[in-house]
Amino acid sequence: MNTTIAKPEIEILDPLMRIPEGVLGNPYPRLANMREHAPILWSPEGNQWLVTRFDEANSILRNNKFGKRLDKWRHPNFLMRGAIKYMRPGQNILLQDPPDHTRIRSLVNTAFTPKVIHQLEEHITEIADGLLAKMLRKNSSDLISEFAFIIPVTVIAELLGVPASDREQFKAWSRKITMGAAGGGCPMRIFDSILAMQGLRSYLSATIDRKKKSPGNDLISTLVEIQAESNDRLSKSELLANAVLILIAGHETTVNLIGNGTYNLLKSPDQKKALLHNPDLINGTVEEILRYDPPVQVVRRLANEPMEIGGVHIKPDDALTILVGACNRDPRANPDPDRFDITREKPKHISFGAGIHYCLGAELARTEARIALHQLFDAAPDLRLDDTPALYKGPFALRGLQQLMVTTR
Ligand code: HEM
Predict the structure, then answer these.
(1) Prediction pTM value
(2) Cα 327 to middle of ligand 1, angstroms
(3) Atom of ligand 1 nearest to the CA of 295
(4) What tens digit of pLDDT does each residue of 124-172 get?
């Protein structure tokens, strides 16, 4: 008898392709299908491997045979190939390999140690309380624009030494820059993102010039001093590239940790009740939000040499794109992974990456989210979602809500 084994239908979710609204809203079933049937899957349209299993992703991130030479990446869209080259004039640590990465990371690290972040706790609490006092005077508010966005953007602006009052301008630049990487490769969006990058770079260049003349007690002033002492420790273009990176990464992600967290808690009344009943669960709550609905969904590496991984043959310069949300919901890493459970024992996740590029701002992001959620539910235990649908915005790589309308009493 002639038997054929039917191949399971795998609908690929490739972040480089246009992603339908419904899938953007809930990508997890499609990611689970990929993970269970082809955990390291070649995407012909995206010209890259898609990695959806926890152990494989974790070992790729910790292995120096995979690196960051993204200029070698054969991106399927020629406009994007040009944009990638343009977007990295100078170097930021997110795009560097050792030894340059090690040299610069050690310079910027000092501003984000647990000790430094601990000293900010009181100030972050004041910011959160000030915003809540305004929000709670009204019946209905957008939690994203009135609360979740303002905390991280204010803190990162102060740490860097740029006026937090320019935050709407940072938001506009950041939005355009990150949308350039959205799937589908729309030429207008790519063009807009290049213009926005130029705007942000000129702004921070002017800030750097100002700090040379009158330094302050902030990270840009510290880096300006290091650069003036020795161009070998930090070049001018590296200084600017890292200021750009830290300003964008410092708020574009944490707004979504607070937003996705509030949304998932309000959608799960039993979990919200557990947190209200036992506020000591807050640290585990933040870890579970990171695992369950991660703000950064895509991390990429390029193979430096040929190798086998997960039974798949990888060639030099192949791109491997790790789909973080799929890996965090791998049942081999976390039992019952589609359940949002703030009492989970040590949820395993790679939401801050792993290895040498492990997120510089992880301690800051955790602290901001912990304080924001604690103060929010302490001040408004009856907080509810209103009837406006909460829509996840693009790009897929940065998962967050456009707005989150809540009823505050
Ligand atoms: C919830 C919030 C955040 C998430 C989910 C997040 C996620 C990540 C991830 C996944 C990486 C690794 C990327 C890779 O391996 O290619 C990373 C790196 C990085 N993050 Fe974050 N991040 C967050 C907040 C922040 C904050 C507040 C800052 C502010 C300083 C920051 C600055 C950076 C920098 C500079 C890197 C590059 C580190 C390196 O390459 O050595 N991030 N982040």
Answers:
(1) 0.95
(2) 17
(3) 5
(4) 999 999 999 999 999 999 999 999 999 999 999 999 999 999 999 999 9
Which CATH fold topology does 21-407 show? Cytochrome p450 (1.10.630)
In the chain, what are the domain boundaries?
21-407
Contact 261 CB / ligand 1 (< 6 Å): no
Query: CB of 247 closer than 6 A to ligand 1?
Result: no
pLDDT of residue 3: 40
Residues in the chain: 409
How far apart CA 252 and CA 152 sit, in angstroms, is 8
Q: From CA 320, how far away is CA 300, in angstroms rounded?
A: 6
For the CA of 96, the closest atom of ligand 1 is: 40
- Ligand 1 mean position to 249 CA, how many Å? 6
**24 SS3 class:** helix
Element (H, E) at 319: strand 319-323
Minimum CA distance residue for ligand 1 atom 37: 94
Phi, psi for 195 (deg, rounded to 5) = -65, -40
